[in-house]
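lol so apparently i was supposed to do this last week
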Amino acid sequence: TTHDLSNRTAVVTGAASGIGAATAVALARSGAKVVLLARRADRLAELAAGITAEGGQALPFAADVTRDFDTAPIRDAFGRVDMVVNAAGVMLVNPFTDSRTDEWARMLDTNLAGLLRVTDTFRPDLVEAAQEGPADLVNVSSIGAHLTLPTFAVYSATKAAVTHLSANLRTELGPLGVRVTNVEPGVVDTELSQHIDNPELVAQLPAVFAGVQPLSAEEVADAIGYITSLPRNVNLPQVVIQPTSQF
Ligand code: NDP
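anyway here it is w/ NDP bound
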């Protein structure tokens, strides 16, 4: 489905794959200019070429959300940003007793501090844009924010933090006209679980999700297109999106 996002300019983090990539495509098809932000430049170039080939506008922007980056190329290409979709994230699950402090640091730096860095970077744009039209901050959290599961302690903690952060940011940004939406997907078919550094846990995944038909990244992207194309006075603060068969 396309939504009306003409005259909008979005930065989508995590755009190299999965939910971020699908969201970038969906927003571009709805008429938005999209900045594709992730680390893998080759993936971003390929995606940008695909979007351009179908008549959309995309800027590949290779950056790491755990580090500061220069936004000059974004301003030069597209000017002011009025939508930020924070989809960059990593899910590195392992038993807590394995003390994978390296993984904890990566998840905290990417899922929480990285999201904060990107949000802080574009916050002045969003606030300014909100004076003239819609402005959106969309944070991709997870139903993991509310789950208590073995091996998920730190991942779930980062997502609980994102969910709570979104709700609190909304109290400051909403009155300034910036919509804040926290999206909590259930299981989505993406590359997310490919980074799990534990063959035993990876082998167990199919059994954990037996009977569940995962959402496609495109289905989540369509919801984000809907959320951001609503009349500017209408905000969905919290959107949980799950496969029908997942409880
Ligand atoms: P993917 O692994 O396919 O996508 C993750 C994206 O994040 C990639 O584009 C990756 O690109 C990017 N990324 C990772 N680290 C960084 C970094 N340091 N800087 C910039 N970009 C980075 O998985 P999903 O699409 O599933 O994940 C997207 C979001 O959705 C995540 O926040 C995840 O937690 C959340 N989510 C996913 C669910 C699922 O079942 N799949 C369920 C609930 C939530 P690159 O490596 O090139 O940087």
